[in-house]
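# nightly structure sweep
# worker-07 picked up a monomer target from the shared queue
# config: single-sequence mode, recycle default, output format = structure tokens
# input follows
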Amino acid sequence: MLIKKDTSSDSSPSIELTPIIDMVFLLLIFFLVATTFHQSEREMQIALPISEASGPISQAARELIVNVTNDGRIIANGQTVDEDGLKSIVTNALEQNPEQKVVVRGDKDASYGMVARALDICKLAGIQEPFLDTVPEN
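# output follows
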């Protein structure tokens, strides 16, 4: 059998970059999607008020997020609840985890009374220090 050597091709070794670029894009998409799903509770169209002393928003594994919308609805665990429903959710969470943390996120246009009522319900359910979430001033 006669094997001909092709002298017209480049004999220097090369690295194929297409699979590496594909893998980088797949990893990028994965982390973007994972981050988006993790932040769904914090992005419920709530416009937080501005505060000079607010800290960075951190997502702890044990925190329960209660949103108060501008029209006074209370949203906990992704569903709209009334005051009794909020109290039962917080009580159940506290039974499962005695160190339960609760963050109340009130829309800046929400009635102060509704936000205060949500904080009060959390305290009545047994949460020692419910947090009121704000955004830092730019």
